[in-house]
Here is the input.
Amino acid sequence: MFSPARRYGIAGAALAVWALTACGSSSGGGDDPATAPTTTQAAAKDKGPQCVGEAPADGVHVLRGGGFRLPGGGGVQYAAASADGTSRTATLRDGAGYGAGQRQWTVKPGSRLTVSGHAYTVRQVCSYRVVLEPKEAKDKAALAAAPESMEFAGGAADNPLCFTTNRAVLAAASKSFPAKGQPLSLLDNGGVKQLPSGPSLTVSYVDTAAGTAGLGANCAGVPVALYKDVRVGDTVEFAGVLFKVSELTEQAVRLTRTSE
Here is the structure.
């Protein structure tokens, strides 16, 4: 049996970097979001609020710690979050995956981004996701387009299944998870839970002494989520489905589905 303070890292994939311009304050550098913490120091609890702004039904969900490939060859990551008890901001980084020297910006609901010549507005900032709305109808249509196949092939060929707002694709992914109110257990053994119609999920570490864990998700060769230092009661999202962390043990992280 492993020590409760031992952590297991997830290796991030090296991906191409795309240009991103944005409204908001900018800063350089930043830690690699695909690298799990290496100490057992207790993580600071998020002050909230959990979400600020309203998410449109066809919005693009960029998950905490992960990236999203966008139409036109661009990409964006949700690199870091900040909340002071009354407001919330997010740090977005250019490109769907981490790379040295990438630019990043602090945004809030209403901030506007231009990614590879395509305009987006930040509609919602949550502890677990940022929701973007494309400005142009052609970009909305591209994101909502039906894939040629609902079968996963591996790598970039799965972009239409992993980076989409298509209702049929999201419904298929939703069915891969337990029903609302039911548990989902992810084992802390370095293994991967591969969903038949969605991302692969991994527990990067469990620290029972600190009461925290790390959860990761990958799809089409992109780290699409990396939730560091989650606690019991925290919300996470995978493939458009919401869960609350319900239990942390040395052996597993247990989630309870909270959305339909």
